[in-house]
Amino acid sequence: LVIANSTGLAARNGILVRDRDSLERAKDIKIVAFDKTGTLTQGKFGVQHVAADGMDEDRALAIAAALEKPSEHPLAKAIVDSAQERQLDLPQVKDFQTVTGRGVEGQIDGQTYWVGRPEWAQEQNLSFPDALQQSLDRADDRGESAVVLMTRDRAIAVIAMADQVRERARTTIDRLHEMDIQAVMITGDAEAVARTVAEDLGIDRYYARVLPEDKVNRIKELKQEAPTAFVGDGINDAAALLEANMGLAIGAGT
Fold first, then answer.
1. Catalytic (active site) residue 200
2. In which order are the strands placed within the sheet that holds 228-232?
3. What are the pLDDT tens digits along the chain (254 aa)?
4. Which of 21, 35, 89, 180 does the annotation list as catalytic?
5. Which of 140, 171, 182, 207 is spaced 20 to 30 Å from 71 by Cα?
């Protein structure tokens, strides 16, 4: 009766209990391991920071968004979305073109602008103000992806982007800590990215650059410490979900 009631309650809250025994095991869980991308994060880029020199930050973002609007690239979409969220008016662009492997260029109010990889600015030996260099270094340290807005002779702005943390992920980690359950993150991303997300969410420990096939081994190691649950959303998480004492598949991925 208890199992039937709890299964029904779970279903009303959007949780499908595939294995009823998992409810019995849930009370013993002491470690919850999470996949990162699409689980703790939204799986899409968002603008984290805009630094501008000699121009208002909103104006720099508006120019970058106007140039990036025709592009399909995820970073370009993040810049356009951020400008729209700030309700910025995008200027008209003339002579737009893509420069393969580097970025885009176009004319706005008679001035030619480029938006692209930081290496592009270095290749052209452009003047790079100290404040913008510091912003670029900070983005590197945090594992963020950055693009540079530039003119013919100097860099104007640095726009740093990252996969955005889900707000509900913060609540989840906090609740786990209240229950004296350890939170662990397992991700294939680089060390800097993993560290930034872990610090942001208050995660107890993390494993970076873990290949999908190695997630199972990490779960086996955690299980030796204490009963472990694994939370993931991708098809490549399937083996780790099965290996854990309790597997929680979120979204439509698995």
1. no
2. 205-207, 182-186, 31-35, 228-232, 246-249
3. 888 898 899 999 988 888 888 888 899 999 999 998 888 988 788 999 999 998 899 999 999 999 999 887 788 899 999 999 999 999 998 988 888 778 899 999 889 999 998 888 888 888 888 899 999 999 888 888 889 999 988 899 999 998 888 889 999 999 999 999 999 999 888 888 899 999 999 999 999 988 878 899 999 999 999 999 999 876 778 889 999 999 999 875 55
4. 35
5. 140
